[in-house]
Amino acid sequence: MTSTSGELYDDIYYTSRDGLRLHARKYAAPSGAPPARPVLCLAGLTRNGRDFHDLAVSLSRHPASPRTVYTLDYRGRGQSDFDPDWRNYSLPVEMLDVLDFVTMTGLADAAFIGTSRGGLITMLIAAAQPTAIGVAVLNDIGPVIEHEGLTRISSYVGRMPLPISWDDAARMARDLNRRQFPSLSDDVWAELARQWYNEKTRKPAAGYDPNIGKALSILDGPMPTLWPQFEALKRVPLLVLRGENSDILTAATVDEMRRRHPAMATATVEQQGHAPLLKDTPTIETIRHFLSATDVSAQSAAAVSAY
After folding, report:
1. Signal peptide location in the record (predicted)?
2. In 65, 69, 211, 276, which residue has its Cα 20 to 30 A from 161's Cα atom?
3. Alpha-carbon distance 165 to 152, whole Å?
4. Mean of the per-residue pLDDT values for the chain?
């Protein structure tokens, strides 16, 4: 593992078990901060750890309850190596990459925040290695993925031309997503373009391997449900965020999730679709308050068990 230091975060590079160089960021809580559960952020299908920058800065620098946050770039995304075999862009392989990072950093009982695909990986880890997860936040994802939304995503992943400028990148991001996010300003679209694309010679470069589209195209019909994996999260506090305009996670699925996990907390992110951007103050504060409350609960339980 290697790392480089920055003002807000450190870049971490580590090697996957099949030899790829993978990237993560560490947003460290200030030295001397009171103990708080660390956070591991897992992004969506074609996204990367930059999606969590605003959330990670807010959580790690909060004056009352700072906590260390890690954000990952899966293989083929962000600053991680692209995989020469597109078949490895699969949930089982990516789950192993995440678990290797957990082992390398010594994370245990962490708070997992999973957006879309990251939430699927979180559910798989809950079933495969339960002690890794102490708290979970699922961002616009559940055990049932709506076919309409999956079809929409499949229609463009790996099929879009590369923008010729950053203005073009912002326009493309807006045109592709404005039905899901009708109220975003041009400045926010420009910021999202910088998150979603890499930069090369001061111009937009692919932020993900287009071959991820091949892995998605082999799906035939609706994805299988993940209710057994979801129920593995019943042992931990859980917050589910749903975008008001989401075509991936329905309100009916959230209701069934709550029936199976009665202690689950929920929040709807207004005027956003799949998946909520985790940039607005109300949503960030919802997550922060949830994590702080689970810290208090864990400390209380530890105090009781000590007697």
Report:
1. none
2. 276
3. 25
4. 94
Task: Retrieve residue 169's tokens.
Answer: 């990148």
- CA distances 177 to 82, 233, 283, 284, Å, are 25, 31, 19, 21
What is the structure's pLDDT at 2?
Answer: 72
Asked if the model's pLDDT at residue 259 lies above 70, the reply is yes
Q: Which residues of 218-257 are buried (b: 16+ CB within 10 A; e: fewer)?
A: eeeeeeeebeebbbbbeebbbbbbbbebbbbbbeebbeeb
What is the DSSP code string of the chain? -EEEE-SS-EEEEEE-TTS-EEEEEEEPPPTTPPP---EEEE--TT--GGGGHHHHHHHHH-SSS---EEEEE-TTBTTSPPPSSGGG-SHHHHHHHHHHHHHHHT--SEEEEEETHHHHHHHHHHHH-GGGEEEEEEES--S---HHHHHHHHTTTTTSPPPSSHHHHHHHHHHHHTTT-TT--HHHHHHHHHHHSEEETTEEE-SB-TTHHHHHHT--SSPPP-HHHHHGGGGS-EEEEEETT-SSS-HHHHHHHHHHSTT-EEEEETT--SS--S-SHHHHHHHHHHHHHHHHHHHHHHHHHT-
pLDDT over threshold 80, residue 106 = yes
Q: Which domains does the chain have, with CATH numbers?
A: 2-158+224-305 (3.40.50.1820)
At 290-300, the pLDDT tens digits run: 999 999 765 54
Q: What is the pTM of this model?
A: 0.95
